[in-house]
Amino acid sequence: MDRNDLLINLEGISFSYFGGPQVLANLDFHFHRGDRIGLIAPNGSGKTTLLHLIMGLLKPTAGRIEIFGKPARDEKDFADVRRRIGLLFQDADDQLFSPTVLEDVAFGPLNLGKSKNEAIQIAQKTLAFLGLDGFENRITFKLSGGEKRLVSLATVLAMEPEILLLDEPINGLDMKTKARLKEIMSGINLSYLLISHDFDFLAEIVDAVYTMADGKILLDKEVHLHEHVHAHELGTYPHQHDMSEERKNAPAGNHQRTDERRQRVTDRRQNLSDRRQNSADR
Amino acid sequence: MISEPFAIGDSMIHRLDPRIRVGLTVAYAFVIALAYRFPVLIVALFFSSILVFIARVDIKEVLKRMVIVNALIFLLWVILPFTFHGEVLTRIGSLAIHRPGVTLAARITLKSNAILLAFIALIATMPFATLGHALHRLRVPDKLVHLLLMTYRYIFVIEQEYKRLLRAAKIRGFQPGTNIDTYRTFAFVIGMLFVRSVARAERVHQAMLCRGFKGKFYSLQEFQIGSASRAFAIIMTAIIVGLVTLELSNG
Question: Nearest-CA residue of chain B relative to A164?
C-alpha cells in the first residue's frame, strides 16, 4: 500500500484513565484511504477511548500517533487532524449545543474560516443531502432522538472531513432511522471507522470488522476463533474482502457512480488543499 | 418541561426587531425603577398593560406570572406598613400602620408589575435564541451571551436527567416526605446531577473542539429594521421621554 494512503497509524499505544486500569495496551492500528471498517467489541473494551485518542481528546500514556503522514502530538497537530477527521459522538446532546439546527451545522464551517454566507450554504446543502430540508430553524433540543442523530451527522459532514469516526451511531434509534442511516452510510463517499454492537447493521456498510480484546485490536480473522459460537453472522466475514471484487465487476451504471464519487473526493481534496494554501498565504 | 409560552405568536410586537425591543425595554424598565411619583408609575402600569394587550399573549399565563411576583410583594405589605416609621395612618390594636410604609409598598407594587408586564410583552415574546443574538448585537460581552445560550440549551437536558433520577427513585418506592431519608435521597439526586453536568460539559467541550472551536462563536441571525420597528422605536422613546418629563415636572 502506498504510504500516502496510510491515513491513521497508531503504534504501541497504551492508555489508562487517571488511576484506572489499563484500557489500551500496546495497540497497533492502521487505517488506509478508502477503508470502511466496523469495530465491534464489548462495553469497556476501549472503543470510544480509541476514537478519542485519534482526535487528540485524550493523550496516550505511551506510543506514537501518526495521522495523514505526520506525527500528532500536541494540541496544534490535532487542531489540523480535527479539520480532516469528523467524529460523531455517542450522545447527540453532546454534539448539538447551538440553539438552532442551522447554527449548529454552520458552526464547523465558520470555525474553518468560511464566510457567513458560505457556511449557511454548506449547512443547507448538508442538511438537504441527509434529507433534513426545512430543519434549519428547528430548536436543537426539541428534535426527536433520530432527528438529533441525523443533525449531529450533518454537523460533522459539514466540515467536509476525509475520514468519519462514528461512535455507536444507531444506538437507541428505531428501525426506520436505522435504515435511513444505513442508506446514508452506503451512499457516502468517505473512509470511515464505525463502532456498533449490531452485526446486521455493520454487515452491509463495512468491508471489514475488527474487534478489541485485552486493550488491542484484532482483525476479523482472529475474531472468528473467539466468537464463532456466539455470533454466527461473523462467519460470513472472511468473504467480505471479495466485495471489492464484486464491485469491480458490477454493472456499468454502478461503475459510473463510483467514478463520480471518486471524482468528487478528488475535487474536494483539491478544494481543501487550496483552502489550506490560502490560509497559509494569509 | 420548562416552556416559553409567549415566544411564538404573530402579533405586531412579535414582528418587531428584537434589538429595538431589548434596548427600549431596558431603558423603560430603568425609568420605572427610578421613578418616584405616583402619576408616573400609574401611567407606566397602564402603558405596560396596553403592550401586553397588543402582544395578544395568553392572559391566563400572564396572570400566573403576576400571581407569583405579587405573592412576594404581599410579604412587603405585611412588613413595611408596620416597620417603616412615620406619620401614623391608623392603629390595629397596639400595632401602628405608618403612611411612609404604605406608600413605599404601593410604589414597589406598581413598579414591579409595570416592569413585569413590559418584559412579558416585549422580551418574552421572542425565542430565547433570538434574545441571545439580540444581546450579542447590542454589544453585550460574548461570554455572557454564550453563558446564557448554553444555559438555555442544557437546562432542558439537565431537567431531563433530574426527572430520570427521580423516576428511578420513585419506581423503587421512594416517597418524598419531611424526613431525613427524603433529604438524603434528594442530596444524592442533586449530587448526581452536578457530577453528570460536569461530565456532560466535558463532552460538549470535546465535541466543540472536534469541530474546530477556537473560542469564538458566530451568530448567523440577520436582523432588519422595518418601518413598523422604526415607528415602535419612536413611540416607545416618546413614552419614555414623557415619563421622565412627568417625573421631573413639579406638579
Answer: B210
Does this model's pTM top 0.80? My answer is no
- The structural domain count of chain A equals 1
Q: Can you give the residue range of the structural domain that contains A107?
A: 3-249
d(CA A164, CA A234): 23
Buried b (16+ CB within 10 A) or exposed e, B135-173: bbbeeeeeeebeebbbebbbebbeeebbeebeeebeeee
Confirm whether B217 is domain-assigned.
Answer: no
Task: Give domain status of residue B5, yes or no.
Answer: no
Q: Residue A260: inside a domain, yes or no?
A: no
What pLDDT digit, counting tens, does each position of A16-53 carry?
988 888 899 999 999 999 999 999 988 888 999 999 99
Its sign, for the CA torsion B47, B53, B54, B58, is positive
ipTM above 0.95, yes or no: no
Residue B227 is part of which domain span? Answer: 13-126+223-248
- pLDDT tens per residue across span A240-258: 333 344 444 444 333 344 4
Min CA distance, A53 vs chain B (Å)?
12
| Contact criterion met (CB < 8 Å) for A82 and B211 | yes
Instruction: Return the SS3 of A257.
Output: helix
Residue A251's pLDDT is 41
The answer to whether residue B2 sits within a structural domain is no
Question: Do the chains contact at B209 and A57, CB–CB below 8 Å?
Answer: yes
CA B146 – CA B155 distance, rounded (Å): 14
Q: Say if residue B37 is in the same domain as residue B118.
A: yes
Q: Are residues B33 and B87 in the same domain?
A: yes
Count Cβ–Cβ pairs < 8 Å, chain A vs chain B: 79
Residue numbers in A near B208 (CB within 8 A): 97, 107
Domain tally, chain B: 2
